[in-house]
């Protein structure tokens, strides 16, 4: 795949180069056509001047080639008629003065000179402009002052780029071409006979809370574990919260809970409250990053407030965890107890530590039920 992409890039570069060369060639052809048109126009004007000179001053041109050319230019339909033996002799107006012919010739010559002066480009080295350009070549003095840096930047002359020449054959250099900077994801070529290895998860999991929940919940969890047999399978997906099969195994066994577990539990509680209004107190669950952002915005005024004035309500008899891995489950249970419509009697909740496997299994069951929805 990467080889095809590199070949495609190479072909695109060649196509763009050919297109640019074709544009340059088209401009060349247009310039040559314009120059040819100007030369033809100039040839016509010179031909008219020469015809006028040969007709009025034939004795001034003694060269045989010039006389032949004069006869060719002076040949008219009346002259062809005079070649016949029965033709009458042409009548020449002798009374026309030669001064008029000379004045007309001078006018034509002046026009030609003006036209040639317009076409000649002005020499850039002549006049004031040339002297100013020569001054710029002098070495500048380095002057230091509080308002200057001591060295001035000289302007570089912008040279006109010569037209690109299309090579007939591509020149192959011995040195390898420079490698382009790799951006984004890099494609890796994999042989066709390569076997993709999956990280398989156990189809059956003997979790500790199996005997604490109903048989229906156990069978449902077992069926879901058989369905999601890869550890990287996404079991639960809600917004930015994703629970994989490996995280379900962490939840069912005695392991630490991730932030996604707590977020999923809060989302499930909010969905329960929307389906059955009045089951819990109205609440708003905010992700942990919100409080980080909130703290970041209030850091400037955080130390201006006296925290001794904050009201503190101590709660006696809270259930505590018996190990170091059930902290995430305790957070979910505290969250569920805080939104109860009635006051919680914490003396009746001292069995939380002993029922942790049950709460883990129930939370896993709730997450797996959300996948069916």
From TrEMBL:
SUPFAM superfamilies: Cysteine proteinases
Gene3D superfamilies per UniProt: Adenoviral Proteinase, Chain A
Domain of life: Eukaryota
Bias (Basic and acidic residues) ranges: 168-182
Signal peptide: none
Region of interest (Disordered), ranges: 67-90, 124-182
InterPro entries, A to Z: Papain-like_cys_pep_sf
Biased composition (Basic residues): 132-143
Name of the protein: Ubiquitin-like protease family profile domain-containing protein
The organism of origin for this protein: Dendrobium thyrsiflorum
